[in-house]
Amino acid sequence: MSQPLSVFQGDVLYLDAMVLVGFVHARSPWHYASRQVFVRAVAPEEPIRLITASLTMDEAVFLLLQELLIDPPYSITRSRSQYLTEHPEVVQQLMGTIDPVVQSLSELITLEPVLAEDVAAMRLEMLSSGLLPRDAIHVAVMRRLGIDAIASDDEAFERCTGIMLYRP
């Protein structure tokens, strides 16, 4: 069972990539809810510590690059990852646009490494809940850190024992 992100009352929250993308990308369906979480994170009265695995930044940056391709002058709506692979100059241009935002995000979030023990825990999580590898890595890192709340729109996290999903 999940709850709306707006009702989260804890002091530590693990973030999935889509929340980072939602924070940055104004047209994202998660933009408002994601922004509210970041506003709360820096509020002095009840700050939230935001944590994610370092690999989440990879996913978030890649998703942002793909989203920016939809807009002119590119207007690429299909095979966006292939387009990026074939046009490194476009990656450079787009990264020049999003790099300051990514740097700012890195200052607001605690980035945790993925350890060898997390990979072992990932495999066990996949066996017990049927999660896909990336989601199972997130759960493994969360469990290692003692975090039981995740902000994500991925309902697969509802299958994880002891994890509360907060959806934007």
Explain what this protein looks like in three dimensions:
The mean pLDDT is 94. The radius of gyration is 16 Å and the shape is globular. With 168 residues, the chain is an alpha/beta fold. It contains seven helices and six strands, in the order ββααβαααβααββ. α3 crosses α5 and α6 (116-129) packs across α7. Helices cover 55% and strands 14% of the residues. The longest helix has 21 residues, at 88-108.
Which whole number gives the mean pLDDT? 94
**Biggest sheet layout:** 6 strands, parallel
* CATH architectural group: 3-Layer(aba) Sandwich
Q: Strand order of the main beta sheet, please?
A: 1-6-5-2-3-4
Query: Percent of residues in beta strands?
Result: 5-15%
Rg measurement, Å: 16 Å
Count helical runs: 7
User: What's the total number of strands?
Assistant: 6
Low-confidence stretches: none
Order of helices and strands: EEHHEHHHEHHEE
In whole angstroms, how far apart are the ends? 14 Å
CATH topology-level name? Rossmann fold
Molecular shape: globular
Number of domains: 1
Indicate the structural class.
Answer: alpha/beta
Based on the structure, what is the oligomeric state of the protein chains?
A: single chain
The CATH superfamily is known as 5'-nuclease
Share of residues in helices: 40-55%
